Amino acid sequence: MIQKKICLLGASSVGKTSLVKQFVEGIFNEKYLTTIGVKIDKKIVSIENKQVQFLLWDIEGNDRYNVFQERYLRGAAAYIIVVDQTRISSFMEGIDIHTLARKASNCPAILAINKNDLQANWHWEDKELKDYKDLFELQFSTSAKTGENVEDMFTALARLLAES
Amino acid sequence: MTSLLNNVLNAMEQVVLEVVDSNAGTFRLIEGDSDWVSELFPNANHQKIFAIDDNIPFLQDFLIDARLIWHDKKNGRVRSGFWTEVVANNKELHLEAIAIKQEIYTLLIISNQTEEFIFRQNTMQSARELLLHNDRLVEQNEYLHTRLLDILSKPSGQNDILVALTKAIENAGFAVLIADNNLSTIIANTAAVNLFEQDKLLSNEQTTPMDVIVQLLKNQLPEYERIISTKSSWDGELCWISPPSTLKWLKVALYPVLDELNEVKNWIVFANDISNIKYLVQRNEQLALQDMLTELPNRIAFWQTLEKQIKSNTPFYLLYVDINDFRRHNEFYGHDEGDKLLVEISGRIKSTIKESDFIARVGGDEFAIILNNVDNQEWCEKVVERIIGCTRKGFETRKSGSFHISLSIGAASFPHDAQSVEELMKFVDLSAYNGKQAKANSLQFYSQSMKDASRQLIETENELRLAIKNNEFELFLQPIVDLERHSIVKAESLIRWNHPTKGQIHPEVFIPIAEKSGLIIIIGKWVIDTACKMAEKLNAMGHQVKISLNLSPSQVFDENLFPHLHACVKQYKIDPALLELEITEGVLVDDYAITEKLLNKVRAIGMSVAIDDFGTGYSSLAYLKKLPLDFLKIDQSFVKDIVNDDNDKAIVRAVIAMAHNLNLGVIAEGVETEEQLNFLSNNACNSVQGYLFSEPVDFKSFIALLEKQKR
Fold it and tell me: What is the distance in angstroms between the Cα of B282 and the nearest Cα belonging to chain A?
């Protein structure tokens, strides 16, 4: 079976681990527990009779205590930049991480604007939206809590990777 | 395996694998047989060869880095960093791999790091929760601060203000107090009452939350007096100890609400109990003494060092570095860019001082530096030159290009200026604050004269306030003569202060103080009002004379300026074409976009616009072309020597030609002689102003001039 390495990147406490947990196990835990280092989960996704095994690299969030490490991107088929829609700073950090990741890999990048079950406290201007949309192959508004768009995002990613 | 080494490795939770074929990823287990080893490598019986494959993808990936070490001729090692592996029964192992090349041996050590992992996770959990908490607090504080300012800026006497305030603060989630100018509480929310609740049985005297805060500020903040007297904002941490059982860490923010006279109307106080977070952070000593953002020592670390330094009795200079207009940068570029700026500037400053010196972040945009073993001013100046030099290179933003900043630096020496921590801090803080007025890079050494000047400034400011209340100002007019019509077509309005004891004071003396203190806004409104009244009267008398008004930078940036101008024009029913606004080049440079907006609006209603003191500032043709302007006023310094100085002749000719090319009229200021007038007249200057025609005169005398002209 084909294996695809997918890295989840982003600032700390944006919900990378929760997205993986929701996708792989279908559960959500309210309590925030910070990730240290890397944890890899596996899940098989079926696309038009083809099966792909995703290796989901859940990587410790980047902040002033943990700098971005490009080596984790080695061999990645795609990466997902996760941001928290209740904190605009997480978006700016996400864009910074994306810029660094782009230097290390040309693989498809997806933007997951997570925590869409909570009220957003920032809104994009039309022009900004367009500018940032262009930076990513796909973009989703997700909630690891309700599960909204989580499955859809990974399925769309599998489809995108199957096409390429 | 019963060897000593095996026992040691088991005790250390490690396993040693020997590389059999690095390219194939095959290994042999040498020593270490803890239970978790067989859970991780089920096929790794002693001495049996096994492969690390995609069952453990993290480790498989790490082998790429490991091979570089194993294939190298030199000894070396590389670590994988922590990863978590789920084994049978959903058990999680927290591991780290180390690839080693030592002489002829190529080894892979796997270390079960559960203990270290949990320790790190706990620390990071605290640190990240603190980050999140701070982020949210900043957002909430900002939102509520804006909302309260909005409510409090409404005219006093409105009954619904108290209701609106109560609604706004009750559900804030942190303590909010609104006090009058004497810091007496007007209203406090339930969170404030709860936060400052004390044991009623034990304490005889119940103090209010505001009493507690003020006491803490006085005891723990050397800048307190300066903050209150200069109506500044402050935010930071305070420790509240009230025996026998209260020990709380509070994050407190103090904001002034100013009225039109720039006097404090209210104080807004926010207080958050951060004891839990403080406790979590303090478990890690490094975090307790370090500023999270810049990784420099924090305020507490700074105080400790300063105390030690004073005890050691060796001379040093203390610097207090403040970023000018930081708040404006923060608002304009966003908090992330503000944070980025702080990180970068702290790095740059650090690189300019010696290893033996000490730098800390002691406030939002403030840094303190101890220059060890520096006992003369000259040395101190050299260091400051380097610090200022490091800010000359622009600061890059993510989206909006780069910008420049300037610093205000206060300096005081130990033991010369002060001998205690509190006094030293107070002095450098005051010095930096004094320098800040210049809005450019500045260094202020503490001195008695500075202290006196500061007192003098406050006195004049208070007198100005009285002058506004007592109506001590008068508007003079200086005629502007049209050279084609040979008549007064315009007059520049110039303010005078009729001081009850000091006599008439010219604007050069008091306008800079009014500008610094913010009183310029209300004085400017008085000027606009008075000028409109004069225009109305002149019009009624049949004189079609335009009155020009000088606008200061603060007025141009005041969003209420245009509505006020418009309202006055309507109130006095005057033709807006009878008013002209004069702005200096400096204002344009400060903020082109805001100026352009204002000028477009005033011209849209029919007023005209002139650039004052042309040629003395940053003359840029670019803005002259783009901005909606009508006149240029050539500064009197060019007119003064126009008859004898060939350079000035050339400049004035060029300015006139350029202005005419751009369809702008030209007014020459400071014309005092017939020769100057002839030159200007011969070179197509449109209008002139100066003592040759008349000095600035009171309204009555101005009318007399007009009457005389009629005859």
Answer: 16
The nearest alpha carbon in chain A to B55 belongs to A42
- The per-residue pLDDT for B624 is 73
Q: Please report the pLDDT score of residue A78 as a whole number.
A: 97
Separation of alpha carbons B36 and B53, rounded Å: 18
When pLDDT is averaged across residues A156-162 and rounded to a whole number, the result is: 92
B87 vs A: CB within 8 A: no
Cβ contact B83–A39 (<8 Å): yes
A122 touches chain B (CB under 8 A): no
Q: Residues B152, B265: contact at Cβ < 8 Å? A: yes
What's the CA gap between A13 and A10, in Å, rounded?
9
Contact B81 A38 (CB under 8 A): yes
For residue B368, the 8-state DSSP code is: E
B397, B402, B426: which is closest to B412 by C-alpha?
A: B426
For tokens 């007592």, name the residue.
Answer: B470
Q: Do A63 and B398 touch (CB under 8 A)?
A: no
CA distance B408 to B437: 9
The two tokens of residue B651 are 């400049």
Greatest distance between any 2 Cα atoms in chain A: 44
Spell out where B32-73 has E strands.
49-51
A129: containing domain: 2-163
Domains of chain B: 4-112 (3.30.450), 123-280 (3.30.450.20), 294-446 (3.30.70.270), 463-710 (3.20.20.450)
Give buried/exposed letters for A8-47 (b at 16+ CB in 10 A, else e): bbbbbbbbbbbbbbbbeeeebeeeeebbbbbbbbeeebeb
Q: For helices B326-333 and B335-352, give the axis angle rounded to 10 degrees.
A: 130
List strand residue ranges (DSSP E) for chain A, in order.
2-10, 38-47, 50-59, 78-84, 109-114, 138-141
Distance CA B252, CA B247 (A): 15
CATH of the domain at A63: 3.40.50.300
Phi, psi of B55 (to 5 degrees): -70, -30
What CA–CA distances, in Å, run from A11 to A27, A96, B568, B674? 22, 10, 53, 73
Residue with tokens 């500064």: B635
Domain count, chain A: 1
ipTM score here? 0.94
Q: Rounded to an integer, what distance in angstroms lies between the CA atom of residue B648 and that of residue B181?
A: 54
- What angle, rounded to 10 degrees, do the helices at B561-571 and B592-604 form? 20
Q: Confirm or reject contact between B135 and chain A (CB < 8 A).
A: yes
| Bond preceding residue B209 cis, omega within 30 of 0 | no
Kind plus residue range of the DSSP H or E element containing B59: helix B57-70
- The whole-angstrom distance between B338's CA and the closest CA on chain A is 12
Radius of gyration of chain B from Cα atoms? 35
Answer yes or no: are the C-beta atoms of B97 and B108 closer than 8 Å: yes
| Long-range contacts of residues B569-575, Cβ cutoff 8 Å, at least 24 apart | B569/B532, B569/B605, B571/B532, B572/B532, B572/B533, B572/B535, B572/B536, B573/B536, B574/B532, B574/B535, B574/B536, B574/B539, B575/B539, B575/B606
Nearest CB among B83, B127, B135 relative to A37 is that of: B83
Smallest Cβ–Cβ distance between A34 and the set B61, B128, B335 belongs to: B128
- In tens, the pLDDT along B315-364 reads 999 999 988 878 777 767 777 788 889 999 999 999 999 988 999 998 77
Q: What's the average pLDDT block by block, 10 residues per block, for chain B (711 residues)?
A: 80 93 93 90 84 93 95 93 93 96 94 91 82 75 83 72 84 88 91 80 69 89 82 85 79 88 89 77 65 83 87 90 81 77 93 92 88 88 92 81 85 85 79 70 79 76 90 96 93 95 90 84 94 95 94 88 93 94 78 82 92 70 76 90 86 86 91 94 94 95 91 72
**pTM, whole model, 2 decimals?**
0.54
